[in-house]
TrEMBL record:
Keywords associated with the record: ATP-binding, Nucleotide-binding, Transport
Organism: Pseudomonas eucalypticola
InterPro entries in alphabetical order: AAA+_ATPase (IPR003593), ABC_transporter-like_ATP-bd (IPR003439), ABC_transporter-like_CS (IPR017871), ABC_transpr_TagH-like (IPR015860), Bact_Polysacc_Export_ATP-bd (IPR050683), P-loop_NTPase (IPR027417), Wzt_C (IPR029439)
Family classification: Belongs to the ABC transporter superfamily.
GO molecular function, one term: ABC-type transporter activity
Name used for this protein in its record: ABC transporter ATP-binding protein
Origin superkingdom: Bacteria
Gene Ontology CC entries for this record: membrane
């Protein structure tokens, strides 16, 4: 990679904020340490240090769209502000190449006393456009924002949705080389969001680099080439969007403790004996982890858990066809799963999720939600269990991924023992009968109307 390829380069950036118990402490902090340093004395600190970012490093390539995810307070907005130059890092370096447009805090770029129109000119000027250039783009900006007569009202009279519409319209219509969007799109309604993502797609095609902070993780999988997960001020994970989002969801909904990453078993240790399998009662392996040797296994699965149980094997069939290359829309699919409890697990929960290849969850359930019988009697240390899931693949054609997970509850907390995200790939064959993701089994009646009635 040549050094010119990056749009944003963040090298070992840390940011420390000071919080003060009393306003006078803030004043003392701004004077006394300097004096002490000047006099060569020991430096006193009057504030409490809080590190919002620690040793964050990554590059965004030209034309790349990168999502940043993380829990509240993990440092996302601080990082974006540092990249935009509105905050200085305490240590580390930032370099950017190209004109940056940014949609940070809601309406932060607007003067509330000025009208929308005046703010468009102000914002355009800040982004380096001349009056003529803004004149040329004004109709496109107003058309995109679509806020009608409000364009001539003071911005203080806008709803937050209107403010974000106008702000996005300005930033996205100036053809930036780098666009930074902080969660702002979540404020707009669904139609506006779709319009924004279409605009982001066009910008991307034209080579704009986009950095997107959002809590909507599916947007990250759908729109971003890569993602960065911040947790407790540090980069927890960086890589392709799907595994990063999976890890983020685990931090959000799973146990906070860093899980043991479980790797697929060593192929040499797997049983390779040829076996006769009957779809009705397939031979599942309950001794060795042969999951990753099965047809349809996705080697890019994301797997983790505390190892209390292991999902060892699966068998998928449709109308007697074992591990079919594709299933017909609406066909019944039978998925059998073999589990070993490595230690005592009380009331284990087996989860099942079906997602599109873009990461959109189509369906999810688990043995608890389904009120499965017999779950209370399984889970003894060293014992095994077999689950049989049946579902009608009422889906549109395309690629789908199944995630399986074995967990249990400790009070309010869910404890994941073996989660195998996106571990099974299956394909629904093209169907002329429907468009879209799922088959709603719509019925339709059309009758001729006698005009004389
Ligand atoms: N000016 C400041 N002074 C002191 N602490 C601050 C300041 N700005 C941010 N922080 C703290 O830094 C941490 C990171 O804040 P930041 O807004 O970057 O998080 P975030 O990941 O964007 O959160 P959210 O998802 O809630 O928007 C938080 O704990 C916040 O309280």
């Amino acid at each position: 990679m040549s050094s010119d390829d990056f749009a944003i380069s963040v090298q070992d950036v840390s940011k420390c904020f000071y919080t003060y118990e009393k306003p006078s402490d803030r004043l003392k902090q701004s004077i006394v340490p300097r004096l002490q340093r000047f006099l060569g004395d020991k430096v006193t600190s009057y504030g409490k240090e809080f590190w919002a970012l620690r040793n964050v490093s990554f590059d965004v390539q030209k034309g790349e769209t990168v999502g940043i995810v993380g829990r509240n307070g993990s440092g996302k907005s601080t990082l974006l502000q540092i990249i935009c130059g509105t905050l200085m890092p305490t240590t580390g370096q930032i370099a950017t190449q190209g004109r940056i447009a940014a949609l940070l805090e809601l309406g932060s770029g607007f003067n509330p006393e000025f009208s929308g129109r005046e703010n468009v000119y102000l914002n355009g000027a800040v982004l380096g456009l001349s009056k003529d250039e803004i004149d040329d783009r004004f109709d496109a900006i107003a058309g995109f924002a679509d806020i009608g007569e409000f364009i001539d009202q003071p911005v203080k009279a806008y709803s937050s949705g209107m403010a974000v519409r106008l702000a996005f319209a300005v930033q996205a219509q100036v053809d930036p080389e780098i666009l930074i969007v902080d969660e702002a799109l979540s404020v707009g309604d669904a139609r506006f969001q779709a319009k924004c993502f279409e605009r982001l797609r066009q910008l991307k095609e034209n080579g704009t680099s986009i950095l997107l902070v959002t809590h909507a993780s599916e947007q990250v999988v759908t729109h971003c080439n890569r993602a960065i997960l911040l947790d407790r001020s540090r980069v927890e994970m960086i890589g392709s969007s799907r595994p990063v989002v999976n890890r983020y969801l685990d931090i959000l909904f799973g146990r906070e403790k860093r899980p043991e990453a479980l790797s697929p078993p060593d192929a040499d240790t797997l049983s390779t004996e040829a076996r006769e399998l009957s779809p009705a009662d397939p031979v599942l392996d309950f001794n060795t982890d042969v999951f990753s040797t099965r047809i349809g296994y996705n080697p890019h699965e994301y797997r983790w858990g505390d190892g209390g149980a292991t999902i060892l094997d699966y068998h998928l069939s449709a109308n007697g066809r074992e591990f079919p290359n594709s299933v017909e829309s609406g066909e019944e699919v039978v998925l059998q799963v073999a589990v070993r409890f490595n230690r005592m697990i009380v009331n284990p929960i087996l989860g099942f999720t079906l997602k599109t290849k873009e990461g959109v969850t189509v369906y999810g359930t688990n043995s608890f939600m389904l009120e499965c019988d017999g779950v209370q009697s399984i889970g003894a240390a060293g014992s095994h269990a077999k689950a049989c899931l049946r579902f009608a693949a009422r889906l549109g054609s395309g690629d789908f991924f199944i995630s399986l997970g074995l967990a249990s509850r400790e009070g309010e907390e869910i404890v994941p023992h073996d989660r195998r995200y996106d571990s099974l790939h299956f394909v629904v064959a093209p169907t002329p009968k429907l468009l879209g993701l799922i088959d709603l089994a719509v019925s339709m009646e059309i009758d001729q109307v006698n005009e004389n009635v």
